[in-house]
Amino acid sequence: MIANNMVTKTLNESFEQYKALVAQLSQQHSCKDGLINIPVNQTLHKVALASPEPPIPLLEYFNRYLAAKSMDPHSEELSSYYTQTRSMLQKWGSFDPNDTSILLSRERFGPKTFNDRRNCLFKFFDWLVRKGKLSDNPLADVSAKKRQRNAEQRKPFTEREVAVILEALKTDRFRKKYSRYSHAQYYPFVAFMIQTGVRNAEAIGLQVRDVLWSTGEITICRALARTSKGTNEAARKEKGTKTNNVRFIPMNAFLTDLLKPLCIDKKGTDLVFTTEQGRMIDDRMFQRRTFKPLLKELKIQERDLYACRHTFATRAVLAGIKAHEVAYLMGDNLQTVIANYYHKEKVTVALPELA
């Protein structure tokens, strides 16, 4: 009626004449059990009230997804790659999967963390699509962020820098006068990493039984990895190496002399590298309290402890060890070693001449 009156220009702007009609219609049509009776051409048709579909219980399905991957969703051994993604889902609560990209963009993540969360959720959503729970992957158009590696923090040490760092640690050159803790206790730990190129957690987790005196080799098969709970002894969990491979590093005279006194009178499962109190080394605390201040005293450009690994790779290649052999010793693939660890000064190479 209102529409017709507007067309014929007879609309009553006070709307008084329409109130009685509205009241009459309200009495004629009832709403019961979510159904409205609407008369159309004298016939009553029942039209269901539209109610929004309940959101998918993503947290529940995420645990099912982990179980489908033969993982225990509630295990303390579960990788932080999954536990932190699950914590994020829990924080987000109930939400429309199509809003995932918006929610993810609001998190204050660096590129690496963003990519980890994005990749984990992407694979999870792919699984939901295969199970028929989603029609498509809501992160299909969300690209990974480009990482800007802080190469300067992991730049390899020069031969001179290696020598002065090890000498300063070994002799307690910069130990504070009234400090209870010596720097010398960390000398074997740092020297071992520079000499072998192992990851921090692999050196921390090295056990006496991993040193094979009979064959002159060191087995790298485990790591004491940090967890979301921290880097201290109680927070770390023993697991395989990053690439889940086992490798054997040959011992030279330097390593033999370095490791022998550290293994005497210890059980096979004891850690090789410990503090003076016999505790596990916390690499993060060592880096912050000892290693970086020592570099500052030596007037050496600030580096992360991980620069020891880069130092090994560069020294090994320059010593003539082939890149694929360096990759094996480091427990990495060839492409990663060349892209991330192989640093060297510019070398002039003479091209072969044509006959």
From TrEMBL:
Occurrences of domain Tyr recombinase (ranges): 152-355
Gene3D superfamilies in UniProt: Intergrase catalytic core
Name of the protein this chain belongs to: Tyr recombinase domain-containing protein
An example Gene Ontology biological process: DNA recombination
Alphabetized GO MF terms: DNA binding
Similarity remark: Belongs to the 'phage' integrase family.
One Pfam match: Phage_integrase
InterPro entries per record: DNA_brk_join_enz (IPR011010), Integrase-like_cat_sf (IPR013762), Integrase_catalytic (IPR002104), Tyrosine_recombinase_XerCD (IPR050090)
Keyword Magnesium: no
SUPFAM superfamilies: DNA breaking-rejoining enzymes
UniProt keyword annotations, A-Z: DNA recombination, DNA-binding
Superkingdom: Bacteria
